[in-house]
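During the reporting period the student researcher (J.K.) took over the structure-prediction task from the postdoctoral fellow and processed the backlog of single-chain submissions. One of the processed entries is reproduced below for the supervisory committee.
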Amino acid sequence: VAGRGVVVLDHGGGIRSTLEPVTDWLPVGTAVGAGDRVAVLAAEGWHCGSACLHWGVRVGQRYVDPLSFLGATRVVLLPMG
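J.K. obtained the following structure tokens:
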């Protein structure tokens, strides 16, 4: 999308999540499970000045707040590598 690598994960039930910008993503149609590596975060963001991940969620054709899918879970970002 617009020169950036994007991974789309189909969770079933019309729910899809997107991760960008990424490189080295898995082939289209690859089945993955919780904790599986699906791509590598691109070394530089297009507007962040450094690497940054954009996460989106759509239900059908409507974008929704991704955090609503995490409930009370604490989000922790791990170092690259």
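The committee noted the following: The first strand starts at residue 7 and ends at 12.
J.K. will present the remaining backlog at the next meeting.
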